[in-house]
Amino acid sequence: MLYVDHAAGGPVRAEVLEAMAPFLLGRFGNPSSVHTVGEDVSAALEDARRRIAGVLGMRAGDVVFTSGGTEANNLAIAGLALGARGRRPGHLITTAIEHASVLAVGRYLARMHDYDLDILPVDTRGRVRPDDVAAAVRDDTAVISIGYANNEIGTVQDVAAIAATAGGIPVHVDAVQAAGWMPLAGLGVDALSIAGHKIGAPQGIGALAVRGRLPLEPVLHGGGQERGRRSGTQNVAGAVALAVALELAEQERTDAATRATAAREEFTARVLATIPGARLTGDAVDRLPGLASFVFTGTSGEAVLLELERRGIITSSGSACAAGSTDPSHVLAAIGLTDDETRTAVRFSFDRTAPPAPAALADALAAAVAAIRSAA
């Protein structure tokens, strides 16, 4: 089996599993307990926090452990908006191609707290202009939330330029897909979300790094863990796993990006040359190194996926986060595709450590598309 759906998630790395295993077995204490067993795991938790902060270019106290990227995005947007504005309605800025967790929490704040939500358009490559973001800023803007790299089409935004023109408004970046592929430090942003299962840690662990000077209203209330910003007993094994996975991904990032870019470009060129009607979606240059996404006229994306799986290749038609949804992709609609075109989409996302053989993958895809078309 060839698995090329790493944007949805991948296996836990052996080094990560080894590092977290003691906290699933012998070192099982609650980090909030005031005894030696609790103090032992509390020290490990803080070490993980420090190591993650080092990769992100933040302070250790800025890092809040969460259950994943969705919770981190919710905490960033709702927490910063409500922390800054309290009960006063305010204004939010994001784009039309953001992850569902970003758009949903923005709509929640609009619906339940009377916030104004600006959802900025993108161009046909999926790019938003920094000047358009700056032009949308108002006196009551509470948060700007931008995805660093899109999970469906791979387009990478110039988040540093957006942060530089934000005029002091807190900028949150959803870096869940960018981690391990793009630089995470030195972006000039105020908050940044990551998720473990994209970089070799288990599902169910993530982090939000948010500048300590910014007031952050918790979205989970209880015992006041994470310095009062996220209540709930911490997942110490997951935090340790996230720290190890993030450090490894950062160490390998440049070489991994170089290998994956070469494989992606060869794969893309062969697909476009051998499959009539194939179109690349997203920016051809400013995109994730290991992600190639296409639409194929005269097919069904789901049918292509099934045909590929019959041939031993596992991939997806886009986001794995819209559970069971058959609605057209809001990302592909935002870049100008019709509903029919969006339903022909297929996404390939590569492993950082071992990209697939581009020619063999492209030939298998060509055969799958041809089989679907001939059966129509």
Automatic annotation (TrEMBL):
Residues 3-351 form the Aminotransferase class V domain. Its cofactor is pyridoxal 5'-phosphate. InterPro entries: Aminotrans_V_dom (IPR000192), Aminotrans_V_PyrdxlP_BS (IPR020578), Cysteine_dSase (IPR016454), PyrdxlP-dep_Trfase (IPR015424), PyrdxlP-dep_Trfase_major (IPR015421), PyrdxlP-dep_Trfase_small (IPR015422). Gene3D superfamilies: 1.10.260.50, Aspartate Aminotransferase, domain 1, Type I PLP-dependent aspartate aminotransferase-like (Major domain). It catalyses: (sulfur carrier)-H + L-cysteine = (sulfur carrier)-SH + L-alanine. Its EC number is 2.8.1.7. Keywords: Iron, Iron-sulfur, Metal-binding, Pyridoxal phosphate, Transferase. SUPFAM superfamilies: PLP-dependent transferases (SSF53383). Belongs to the class-V pyridoxal-phosphate-dependent aminotransferase family. NifS/IscS subfamily. PANTHER family: CYSTEINE DESULFURASE, CYSTEINE DESULFURYLASE FAMILY MEMBER. This is cysteine desulfurase. It comes from Microbacterium thalli.
